[in-house]
Amino acid sequence: MHDGPVPPPPGPEGPGGGGASAPQRATPARGVLEVRTPGRVPYAEALALQERLVAERRAGRAPDTLLLLEHPPVITLGTGSAPGHVLVGAEERARLGVELFETGRGGDVTYHGPGQLVGYPILDLKPDRRDLHRYLRDLEEALIRTVARFGVRAWREEGLTGVWTDAGKVAAIGVRVSSGWITSHGFALNVDPDLSHFGWIVPCGIADRAVASLAGLVGRPVPVAEVAPVAARELADVFGLRPRQAPGPETGVPSPSGPSSPSAPSTPSAPSAPSTPSSPSADSSPFRGGSHSR
Which residues belong to the active site? Predict the structure, then answer.
């Protein structure tokens, strides 16, 4: 897609000549993706927040929204979960302080916990993105681009959902699309969690594949707060939206003087990220993205 005004055709005397030129066409304005970063949120509270935002988005009272957060340790069951894929019983879960929830998302069993960036996009896929498979592939693309910013090569696996690396699966995806084509649930990117906790389950019902973390792949500790703005920009870019940090105490807005996103490797699928403004306005935050769209 062309990013700026379409140049007029040359006049009779060539470019810059004295001939009449066609009027320039402005690039359509990008929609807003409101980014909320409430920190570490119990799973039940995040479910309630998603339900409220879905209703508001369906009614047209809220823009497309991305929740980026962490959860305390929790095991969640998708609509395709098998009972045998949870490997710790109720008494052991109580001892460990791990909750268990049945959810309305697709997929099998998964684990969420500290050090994992969980993203819940609340998007209206109308009118031109009403395709569940395309939506899943778009989420994968955003996550592939995100880890590429940290020098990690990742890819899709044929017949599976999620994002994969040489060391194993680094991101899981499980979504719900409700009436009106409004999305909820989303993705979990393993930034720097305790990977031993995945031994409590059969992750996504796949017993013979390893689970990886971004920190392990890059060989250094990686804070979730360093990855969140990168993921927000990449997801917004894939969906042709303009990220904007939501104000207010509920969202735990990070300081604009926080860690800057790392440079992307030179690959066609991971365009370089713009620098973070030093003094963002209400419309110009650490989540501000580039000027191009997919």
Answer: 204
